[in-house]
Amino acid sequence: MTHAEAAQLPSSKDGGFHCTALTDYSAAATDELDLCAGSIYTVIQTSPSGWWYAEDEDGQYGWVPSNYLVRLEDVTEEEDEKKEKTKTTSGQQGGEEEEDEENEERKKKAKRKSIVAKQNKCKDVH
């Protein structure tokens, strides 16, 4: 299926969602969008071809390969599941649970800083 054919398909049923790029991707056609690892994209339309129509943080639009992206909701759900599993298997109580929550918050902040650093690096390159 060509990009033009995919454009004729109905947009995703949830009206768009946010993703982050797992790795860089350089557009190979004029209707494609460059991806930068760690940057956030809004997916406007999906297609069975595996190409999604997305907008980057600068307002640029284009087709991107879906296997280079991960939904932010999926990342959050994985983190929540790991956190819940840790709580139920550790048998920790009281202050130790609060300490774990603080550690998790520190890890999330560090991850966000890493994403921002990657975005800045990518913007310097492009």
Automatic annotation (TrEMBL):
GO CC annotations on file: cytoplasm
GO BP: superoxide anion generation
Gene Ontology MF annotations: superoxide-generating NADPH oxidase activator activity
Keyword Iron-sulfur assigned: no
Keyword terms of this UniProt record: SH3 domain
Signal peptide positions on this chain: none
Region (Disordered): 74-126
Domain SH3: 14-74
The protein's name in its UniProt record: Nephrocystin 1-like protein
